[in-house]
Amino acid sequence: MLTHPPLRVLIVDDEPLARLRLRGLVEGNEEPRAEVVAEAGSGEQALMWLKDHACDLVLLDVQMPGLDGLGLAQALRGRPFAPAVVFVTAHPQHALQAFELEALDYLTKPVRRERLQASLARAAQRVGERAAIKARDGQEPAAADGTAQVINITERGRLLRVPLGEVLYFKAELKYLTLRTATQSHVMDGSLSDLEQRLGERFLRVHRNALVAKAAVRELERHVPTEGVAEPDGDGSGELGWAVRIAHVNEWLAVSRRQVAAVREALAGQR
Questions:
Q1: N or C end of the chain, less CB within 10 A?
Q2: Is residue 152 in a domain?
Q3: Considering the domain boundaries, does residue 141 fall inside one?
Q4: pLDDT per residue over 26-42, tens digit each?
């Protein structure tokens, strides 16, 4: 199974011992994984570093000489896709102001391991949501045909990046979609209609509830209608329906009558 890249964390605190302890907690967290990419002893140092570098999360003290944590959070607030901010401070009285600045969380010192883990999980979820927005808006690296090369999924606080070439099909089930690869099934948000528009010619809508990679279609056959496989197309006659067999997993998915010709064309194009 693919693993998500570790969260990139910047620690900003004017006390070296506080930074050292926080680094140990961050890098000792097992899930989601996180790494401290830089430390800064003041708000000004953090801003200088952020001019040339990127991170996913800033762990930020409030009271510091010069530009304090609240000032730094305000400076970051207007930036597109700015890093998430979690305040880490011994002064709980600033919590309201911190949340007015759209802080992701507010931790009081000494920081408890489980509270930090919860904050990191929320940050990982935000990273996943932003990656999905970038992919939707065409900001992900594109393949030669203009389609996104990866599908971003947020699953139990983790960001998974599934290469599009590994996807066999998407299937709508209740309020969610199932993404199927040769080895894994993942649950994700979204709609088949949006995916169909985004993914272009590499995928084929075989049924109202299924979008299949053309390269994964192995055969098209008549099948006795059974639940989850082929089904009559709404006339209630119980006649044989159509289904496609999916490579690697040997699963059968129902094909609507109107899509049979398109499936045959896709199969012919693979020869």
A1: C
A2: no
A3: no
A4: 999 988 999 999 999 99
Structural domain count of the chain: 2
Tell me which residue of 271, 261, 171 sits closest to 213, measured CA to CA: 171
CA distances 181 to 146, 190, 217, 227, Å, are 22, 17, 13, 21
Quick check: is 25 in a domain? yes
Contact by Cβ (8 Å): 189, 177: yes
Short-list 125, 134, 119, CA closest to 58: 119
Q: Give yes or no for a contact between 215 and 222, defined as CB atoms under 8 angstroms apart.
A: no
For residue 174, the enclosing domain spans 167-269
pTM for this model (two decimals): 0.51
C-alpha angle 251/254/257, rounded to 5°?
150
Res 43: pLDDT: 94
3-state secondary structure the chain: CCCCCCEEEEEECCCHHHHHHHHHHHHCCCCCCEEEEEEECCHHHHHHHHHHCCCCEEEECCCCCCCCHHHHHHHHHCCCCCCEEEEEECCHHHHHHHHHCCCCEEEECCCCHHHHHHHHHHHHHHHHHHHHHHHHCCCCCECCCCCECEEEEEECCEEEEEEHHHCCEEEEECCEEEEECCCCEEEECCCHHHHHHHHHHHEEEEECCEEEEHHHEEEEEEECCCCCCCCCCCCCCCCCEEEEEECCCCEEEEECHHHHHHHHHHHHHCC
Q: Virtual CA dihedral for 95, 100, 102, 105, nearest 10 degrees?
A: 10
In a domain, 51, yes or no: yes
Q: Is the bond leading into 32 cis (omega within 30 degrees of zero)?
A: yes
Alpha-carbon Rg for the chain, nearest whole angstrom, is: 24
Tokens of 252: 């059968």
